[in-house]
Amino acid sequence: MNNQRGYLIIDVGTGNVRVAVVAREGRILGIARADLKNIKDPNYTESLYFEPNELWKQIQELARLSLAQAPDIHIEGITATSQREGIVLIGKDGESLIGLPNIDHRGRAWEDMLLAKDEVYQLTGRFPTSLFSAFKLIGIEKKRPEIWEKLASFMSISDWVEYKMSGVIHYEHSQASETLLYDVAKKEWSPKLCDLFNLDFKLLANLTPSGTILGTVLASEAEAIQISPNAKVIVGGADTQLAVISTKPSLNDVVIVSGTTTPIIKLTETYVTDQLQRTWTNRHTDENSFILETNAGVTGLNYQRLKEIFYPTEDYDVIEKELAELQDFQCVASLGSLVAKEKSPLTRGGFIFNVPISHQLTRASFVWATLWDIACCINENYKTLCEVTAHEPDYIWACGGGVQSPVLRQFLANLLGKKIIINADYRQASVIGGVYICNEALGFAPLNSSILDETIPQSIVQFEERYTQWKETRNSFRKTFC
Description:
The protein is of the alpha/beta class. The protein is built from 15 helices and 25 strands.
């Protein structure tokens, strides 16, 4: 007899896929991960895609693996979250044609065809680039006619996962914010934006709020992963928004979501845009609120790659121990993280250190420099956010695996001059956000989250010179390579 009741949470990120089994009270009972298999598309200069049918087989297998870790669980609900800006194209017979991840830029060659960029920013809350769905679709239309001729609709990856589970085509609002075809202030698809991109309004799926129960799981899918055929399929949302939910922030709070990239967001009840177009404005998963965002770009991925090089078999505790033992900080890094006020991203980066190479330069020196680069970029983006809208509280929430480093949290507290607060479940923030949504949709009590740590700001006098060095290093890379 199944004694525990809970949910299946499916999370498709930029680099990996994970499926978690979570009890109603938020305890993770099983989790399985695998790499997302992106493939280079030779039809374009800068393009990746994935095979959705292969991804679905992967998700089914991960679901079976995670469920095997919790054999007594009764799955009451299924929901999904995913990378923003990623989409799956659907054919006229409901088939999954191709998956386009957020790192796909097949539409870059057609960015200049859009002349009304300011108007698009005012409607969508973001400067239009090939990152977003409209340009991905244009790229398909221009060079992949064999796909375009079959196209009936498209969905975000999380909405597609729920479609595969329920058979219902739909688009959730926080994900729709990333398409350039959605009026963020009005909370609806925009015929005007479709006209600007010369895309058919009929391609757009019905908008469905997060927390909507789409129905029961398809019998074939329940059989494939061996769960109750009565499990409900519930609309989730974008991974950043679900991660934010896990911190239980108040209106006007700021949250740092440290994953593959690092959004710095503020919850607001009004639609706010930046005259200089440095910020994004997104719909949150609830009925009325917005998320104002700057983004430090690829940060967590940089840290992960450095760990694979310098600490391939050690865990993060070893890194923290060696960081604490550093007597002198021998190098400075600039690794391509984004700063909102800059017009273009850095495409080259590296480390700068004195020569001849000192015996004090260790592998920990490179990690220290990487964490300092991340913290400085977050600080620069936070300052931009505050130029657009003031932030008065003396604390900032943080979540995501990137903030597992106490050293990074101390850097952030010192630079931002705010307490950095993490909850006990901060590492699996988007999964826990999915539990909040499922509990609310099914009428169960919300989670009782608890604070794990508060990092108090210290004097940054000792870091002022290093902060200046970081800015000089970043500027030197920009002058050399941009």
